[in-house]
Specification:
- Strand 9, helix 11 and strand 10 form a beta-alpha-beta unit.
- The protein is built from 24 helices and 14 strands.
- Helix 17 crosses helix 19 and helix 20 crosses helix 21.
- The strands form 3 sheets. The chain has a 6-stranded mixed sheet.
- It is of the alpha/beta class.
């Protein structure tokens, strides 16, 4: 009784969910358990009836059978009729007497089973008197029928039943039944289960403002209908991966307080023809029964690709599904109260009919956050981890250009994991910077062992990059230099970090970047009197940048502002610009000469800069061999190169003080 009371005390009451139905946890169904129990009972009964193991059956003749009956060696007999007075007799022999030579050997812990026998006899009056004279247990002739049912027919029935049971269960698990392939797989999520608000989304103020109209319509549709306005029937969320498109859709449904149907674009496509179109129709039928509501289709490019961009022709399953979606979004039947949200990072491949007004009326761009947005996103994720006073989120936001919201969340998580590995109670500035470098460039690979010659060559190469960038004001500022392999950098790397977000670049900045790119090759020539394969990635980047300047950006005086190629288009899409066949051989020759001139000029600028500061180049290379990793502040202190930003700030402070003194 005490154990039962303790068990009742230890029971945890399920949380109350109000009027909302409680979800059943997935588990084994009672029907399946009952079927297994019946099968196990039948198998156990068969073993108990027939016995475990195999018994040796002894074949005897009728005369031997009569002799054994007289000597009382027969214990049981089962007579099965085969015809007119012909019977098959089966049974067990009696235990041999103690002085018998046929007594079987047995061990102390082994139980000897009775020996089985079988014979075929002609039933006569003498045999009948003999059976009546002895004390043999004779069973009815119907035993043969029961043996056939139990041991021949019943196993077949059990096997067929098990095959049917498992096949039916597999069909229910895989497709919810053979007749439910065409049913929609969209999950209806109540708004109170989403738990995402607009306040939880940072760095997307314009997108939230643009999409808030949908929330206002779902909350108060009559206000818009009285004026005659129509809310957009569909809204397409466009942006780079990790910018929060799915999170924005959840926030819209949660703020509006309406049912939220969620489905992926790949859930429509199946190997069976017509299944995708049937699922589209079923999904919109369910949505009309729950109006007002939201339908969110994630990665819609899986089913909404253009019908004219593929090679060849034909009416495939994806195109049929797209046609059904086009009709449901804007067809003859009205669907008031159903708003479709979709997300994609490839809007250029979507069908034009899907993007026209009446279907997806507007496109909300979820762009990469700027420095202010990154600061807000870092505040949201920094609340989930423990940070100390040394963490400056402004510095992290300034040094993470191009990071998406997912990247910043990963940065905070990596910093927390790093602090835990270092047995710290809170995340510090060093963990945040290390996590930033890990997310940006990869993990340090200190296990790679380099020879002393490779280390010296790498130090000279990276010192050349850093020195050219430090003495050129138009170069992207250097952030860190290392000779430790990190990420895809097989030897070393010079990391640059812009001071603020950059959306366009001038010709002078591109020329400065090209000179910095060739700083490593020029340093190898100057100090090592040799060149290596370490500059292969630099040459590839330099060549691509020079070709873009000539062919795309129009920064060549000889070629002029003429688009000679389109290097920004995805290779699997159609190229609308001029093809190489449309450019004359003379123009192609001029393009090659201009590209070569830009590359040679960049190498000459790097050689001149490093020749003028050869002693500092050697000093920086030696310091890198010793420290392996140096920040830009350490490099400036070592080479006594002033920071232009601090110089400007000090001059502004002095001018302010002088003006105060004059006043």
């Amino acid at each position: 009784m005490s154990d039962e009371k303790n068990n009742e005390k230890n029971k945890v009451e399920p949380p109350s969910s109000g009027n909302r139905p409680v979800r059943k946890e997935p588990g084994r169904s009672p029907k399946a358990a009952l079927v297994w129990l019946v099968i196990m009972l039948i198998i156990g009964g068969l073993f108990l009836f027939k016995g475990f193991g195999s018994a040796q059956t002894r074949e005897i003749s009728q005369s031997q059978f009569e002799t054994m009956l007289k000597s009382r060696q027969i214990a049981t007999a089962v007579l099965v009729s085969e015809g007119d007075k012909v019977f098959t007799v089966e049974g067990t022999l009696a235990a041999a007497p103690e002085n018998s030579k046929e007594k079987p050997e047995k061990s102390k812990n082994t139980k000897v089973r009775p020996q089985q026998y079988r014979t075929r006899v002609v039933y006569t009056d003498a045999l009948n008197e003999l059976l009546g004279f002895t004390n043999v247990q004779i069973n009815s002739n119907n035993a043969g029928v029961w043996n056939f049912v139990l041991f021949a027919l019943l196993p077949v029935v059990i096997i067929v039943g098990m095959i049917y049971f498992f096949s039916a269960r597999q069909m229910r698990m895989g497709g919810h039944g053979a007749m439910e392939f065409g049913k929609s797989r969209a999950r209806m999520i109540p708004p109170d289960e989403l738990n995402v608000r607009f306040d939880d989304i940072a760095g997307a103020d314009e997108a939230k403002e643009e999409i808030s109209e949908i929330v206002e319509f779902l909350k108060d549709p009559i206000r818009f209908q009285l004026i005659g306005g129509k809310i957009p029937r569909g809204c397409l969320l466009v942006g780079n991966p990790g910018t929060g498109k799915t999170l924005m859709a959840k926030a819209v449904a949660c703020e509006a307080g309406v049912p939220f149907f969620s489905i992926s674009g790949s859930d429509f496509v199946e190997m069976f023809v017509g299944v995708g179109a049937s699922r589209v129709r079923d999904m919109f039928d369910q949505a009309r029964k729950n109006t007002p509501c939201l339908i969110f289709i994630d990665e819609i490019d899986a089913v909404g690709r253009s019908r004219f961009s593929g090679w060849g022709g034909g009416h495939d399953e994806r195109e049929q599904t797209l046609n059904a979606m086009l009709v449901e979004m804007d067809g003859l039947e009205s669907r008031s109260g159903v708003i479709v949200l979709a997300a994609t990072n490839r809007p250029d491949v979507l069908d034009p009919a899907l993007l026209r007004p009446g279907r997806f009326d507007r496109q909300v761009v979820m762009d990469l956050p700027d420095i202010k947005g990154r600061r807000q996103i870092l505040e949201v994720h920094a609340k989930k981890i423990k940070t100390d006073a040394t963490v400056d989120l402004d510095v992290i936001a300034r040094t993470t250009p191009g990071f998406s919201g997912a990247d910043l969340a990963n940065l905070c998580n990596e910093a927390a994991l790093l602090a835990a590995r270092r047995n710290k109670e809170a995340v510090g500035e060093s963990e945040m910077e290390e996590a930033r470098d890990k997310v940006s460039y990869g993990t340090e690979r200190r296990s790679r062992k380099l020879t002393e010659h490779d280390r010296k060559l790498t130090a000279v190469h990276e010192a050349g990059h850093a020195l050219v960038a430090l003495y050129n004001e138009k170069c992207t500022p250097v952030h860190k230099v290392t000779i430790i392999p990190r990420g895809q950098a097989y030897l070393g790397a010079t990391f640059t970090m812009p001071k603020e977000d950059v959306y366009s670049r001038s010709k002078g900045e591109l020329i400065a970047e090209m000179a910095m790119t060739m700083g490593g090759r020029a340093a190898e020539e100057l100090l090592m009197q040799d060149i290596s394969t370490g500059a292969s990635a630099d040459i590839r980047h330099l060549s691509a940048l020079a070709r873009q300047m000539v062919c795309v950006y129009g920064m060549s005086d000889k070629i002029g502002p003429w688009k000679c190629a389109d290097m920004t288009v995805h290779p699997h899409l159609r190229i609308d610009g001029p093809t190489p066949e449309e450019i004359s051989p003379e123009t192609q020759k001029e393009i090659d000469l201009e590209i070569r001139a830009l590359v040679n000029q960049a190498l000459a600028d790097a050689r001149k800069c490093l020749t003028d500061h050869k002693e500092q180049l050697q000093k920086l290379a030696d310091a890198l061999l010793e420290k392996e990793t140096m920040s830009v502040e350490e490099i400036r202190d070592l080479l006594d190169i002033p920071d232009p930003d601090k110089t400007v700030q000090s001059s502004e402070t002095e001018s302010a003080e002088n003006s105060t003194t004059d006043a």
